[in-house]
Amino acid sequence: MRSAARVEVGDLEVSVAGQPLLHRVDLRVQPGQRVALLGASGSGKSLTVLALLGLLGPQFRVQGTLRVDGRELPWRQAPGRRPGMAAVFQDSQAALNPVVRLDRQLLPAVARRRRTGAAEAGRVVAELLREVGFEDPERILHAHPSQLSGGQRQRVCLALAMAASPDLLVADEPTTALDMISQRQVVEALRRCTGPGRSALLFITHDLAVAADLCDAVVVLEQGRVVEAGPMQQVLRSPRAAFTAALVAAARAGLRPAAAPQERNLRPGLRPVVAPQEPELRTGSRPVAAPLGAAS
Ligand SMILES: Nc1ncnc2c1ncn2[C@@H]1O[C@H](COP(=O)(O)OP(=O)(O)OP(=O)(O)O)[C@@H](O)[C@H]1O
């Protein structure tokens, strides 16, 4: 597992047709660190991430520096993955072919990424699926993506992303479209896959409560500018930007009576997400009886 790269974005500026969209964005992710990139809709989170991943289209003008372990990388690169980085996005449906069984999608992809044969790829895929919370990987591998819930699909995408043993995993709003239970499962899977001694995480979200549950540092964007950056605890305690203060207040307002800060590492006053529980296996839009991950 590679886990030693420091990723630094300096003075990132992005514009399109002469219109500036990002203004001198600075971002640092240390090895094994989990950093939340937070901001309202349209604040520039996706543009930042796409620039980092080398995925911005030619219509965008990109300036600034990108360094991985002190080595400067170009903003644009030949098609393909940025070395040392992997990503999961909000739309897990688009990432997987809905009509092809998962084993036929995952095994070749993992064999390619690990440069290994079919038997070893099968072992690795099973291990990755367990790591993202599936107790019965075989059952998942024999399903089609359309039979899985959104949260399950997202965890499959995460397993695939982790097959490359990235230095940095970029997770662009992976929990946004999910219910609370699925959200919790994805967050737990991200927690298991990243952290000290493992891949670093850049977690893009507009949900401060989820970010606080998972990340130890935060960068807040507003209208294409970084308005706050620092350790999560410190920012929660004393936000400097009015926008961040409003986010903290909104997260605290979501507090439910049963909320208990002592539940794992939840920050004081921020709402917890509910206990994990496996959602059902679907056929088409109709749930079937046996939950995935249960013994078959
Ligand atoms: N191709 C484009 N042409 C012009 N403006 C764009 C383009 N893509 C993004 N923008 C603008 O850049 C700004 C930042 O967009 P971005 O998608 O990065 O925001 P975001 O924080 O990821 O929002 P969301 O949470 O809704 O995904 C927005 O004002 C958006 O309208």
From TrEMBL:
- InterPro entries on file: AAA+_ATPase, ABC_Ni/Peptide_Import, ABC_transporter-like_ATP-bd, ABC_transporter-like_CS, P-loop_NTPase
Chain ranges of the ABC transporter domain = 7-248
Tell me where in or outside the cell this protein is found. Cell membrane
Q: Where is this region: Disordered?
A: 259-296
Q: Which SUPFAM superfamilies did the record assign?
A: P-loop containing nucleoside triphosphate hydrolases (SSF52540)
Its predominant location is: membrane
Top-rank taxon, per record: Bacteria
What membrane topology does the annotation report for this chain?
Peripheral membrane protein
* MF terms (GO), sorted A to Z: ATP binding
Q: What keywords does the record list, in alphabetical order?
A: ATP-binding, Cell inner membrane, Cell membrane, Membrane, Nucleotide-binding, Translocase, Transport
- Give the similarity note: Belongs to the ABC transporter superfamily.
Q: Which PANTHER family match?
A: ATPASE AAA-TYPE CORE DOMAIN-CONTAINING PROTEIN, OLIGOPEPTIDE TRANSPORT ATP-BINDING PROTEIN APPD
Q: What is this protein called?
A: ATP-binding cassette domain-containing protein
Q: Which organism is it from?
A: Kocuria oceani
Please spell out the taxonomic lineage of the organism that makes this protein: Bacteria, Bacillati, Actinomycetota, Actinomycetes, Micrococcales
